[in-house]
Amino acid sequence: MEDRKMKENENISRRSFFKQLGAGSLAVASVATACSVKGKAAATNVLVPDTDMTYRKGPDGDKVSILGYGCMRWPQVKNAEGKKVIDQDEVNKLVDYALAHGVNYFDTAPKYLQGQSEEATAIALQRHKRNEYYLATKLTNTSDYSKEAAVEMYKQSFARLKVDYIDYYLLHTISGARNGVSGPDIARKRFIDNGVLDWLVQERKAGRIRHLGFSFHGDHETFKYMMTLHEKYHFDFVQIQMNYIDWNQAEGNSRNTNASWLYDELTKRNIPVVIMEPLRGGALAKLNDNATSKLLARTPEASVASWAFRFAGSHPNVLTVLSGMTYMENLQDNLKTYSPLKPLNEEEFAMLEKIAVEYVNFPLVPCTGCEYCMPCPFGLQIPAIFAHYNKCINEGNVKADKMDPDYKRAREVFLMGYDKSVPRLAQADKCVACGKCQKECPQSINIPRWMKRITKYTDQLRAGESEVKA
User: Fold this and answer.
1) How many C-beta neighbours within 10 Å does residue 300 have?
2) What is the pTM of this model?
3) Which of 91, 213, 264, 320 qualifies as a cystine partner to 68, CB 3.0-4.6 A?
């Protein structure tokens, strides 16, 4: 274990690593470097730099790569029976390439890919020395709360992973209130009343678990309860959902708690933070045209996704940022971002916060213009209404605050364009929520609700209210 206690800025010898991989793996890495990132918002030619991966100092002196590999989205193919299975050859290539470029944290769980993730991850990692990587997995006892079931799941993870210790072990998915039961009560039933957490602490003392923590998807009440447990059990790390949308905009817009509050609470207690969902399920890899143009104007050589990863990594108490990199181009793009990490400055933080506010208040309507909703019995031009609204979002002509320097111009553009493209008697305020259109929509858009939102926003613009939110 001594070789894990390395200095924070120590360099990994890539030359010796490639010798261990052999010529075959080196050839794979060389070919993979030539891959390009797809999509208009992505860098057109991702070259992994020769500079070193950024590392963070973890518990017991662990030197952890700021980029962690989330193993929930391994590439899949169909077998002879037409069933989806993990493409082990591709997983091996991805793991080889990640390790060769400094990634050393791999996060899996028993339920990822119906149990296949742990096995595929183990097969790929077993081809390397055990002290070259940190392995994380979880206890996902969300149905059977018995200690016996928890212990069995724990043992199954060891059997699938084929290891004699797990570096980072998590109580999985600590949630908020569900079905009338509070978050703290659920946590107590899953881990406390049955003695599971006491047992896991003993496993940590025995060395079979090096670091014990939990992943969180809950509310304030539940998190405060988990922090009271920290006083007794001493969690070594905590995994939270954190990105520039959920930093200050999660509460009221999703079931999550603001990441800024969670991060601050953990930092107060010197608990390292592991980040999940840095791209918010992939949404932050493809923003509306206005937000995309702002980001690409600043860093035309970088992908839109790289801004989300820079945001997550720019917080000093973050140990590692997990990314489910299914394809080589995803891995290469993230390596480019973190080799080394260039932290955001204050102006860049402010820009992302502004994008977050507009992202939450003015989401695009997923309308394809198919016109299945037409004709409206009350004369509304539904596709035209959505087209104008989405056009204004993509051009940056929607604003949440009258104090915004562009508010007046955006207000005029929105209202003038609305009246020009959609006759007054066919605008959103004429909707009576009959529901006929919604039944016909192949995208399952709640059209009456959107008509109400657009009407509210338009009315506030016409009235000139200072706080404008759709």
Assistant:
1) 9
2) 0.81
3) 320
